[in-house]
Design a protein that fits this description.
Elements (H helix, E strand, L loop, with lengths): L1 H18 L11 E8 L4 E11 L4 E7 L3 E7 L1 H6 L2 E2 L9 E3 L4 E2 L5 H8 L4 E3 L2 E5 L7 E3 L2 E3 L1 E6 L5 E5 L7 E5 L5 E9 L1
Length: about 190
């Protein structure tokens, strides 16, 4: 009788363990590897991003081999309500301070909230809705991660964002930023 009672408990516990998804903890020192696809050049470039600080401002150091390094600085106002996602070539060896409506490698809390509530939102002047029918499994470090997928009204632009209210990390974007598409490859916490 005890074996029969333990079987359903084991099944429930196993289901809970396998249902959990990987949410990386983004903090100072986190290193993220991306590939940047330069659409005009048809070239993929590896880029390493390291979170230097989170707060006001959030600073993300970038490094591209044979090009240089620098820092993107994102204001608290942009993190809260920014409506532009910036992916551009910065000046090497400098701090690139973004405007109060611009984020880099993350979306604002306002945008994230709209995504979670499945409300339409606008980013870079493009109107998006979350694709609730998408069943694609997104993996980070070979682990299934909860990622929100949004598609533009014309179906040309796409956005993948980690479902993490503390740091809604950009996992990928196509035709959102001007001339450059980003894809997350790995994270080292």
């Amino acid at each position: 009788m005890k074996k029969i009672m333990l079987a359903p408990l084991f099944i429930v516990l196993t289901t809970v363990v396998f249902a959990q998804k990987y949410i990386p903890k983004i903090k100072p020192g986190t290193v993220m590897s991306y590939t940047a696809y330069l659409r005009n050049a048809g070239q993929h470039i590896p880029i390493t991003l390291t979170v230097k600080s989170i707060g006001d401002p959030t600073n993300v150091q970038w490094n591209v081999d044979d090009f240089g390094t620098g820092v993107f600085s994102i204001s608290a106002k942009a993190q809260d309500s920014g409506t532009k996602l910036v992916v551009r070539t910065p000046d090497a060896d400098n701090v690139t301070k973004l405007k109060d409506d611009e984020t880099f490698v993350t979306v604002s809390k306002t945008t994230y909230t709209s995504m979670v509530k499945n409300e339409p939102f606008e980013l870079n002047g493009i109107k998006f809705t979350v694709d609730t029918n998408d069943t694609t499994v997104y993996k980070i470090n070979n682990k299934v991660a909860p990622v929100l997928h949004a598609v533009s009204a014309n179906k040309k632009s796409e956005l993948w964002v980690l479902n993490n209210p503390d740091f809604p990390l950009l996992c990928g974007e196509l035709y959102v930023a001007k001339g450059i598409d980003l894809t997350l490859l790995a994270i080292k916490e």
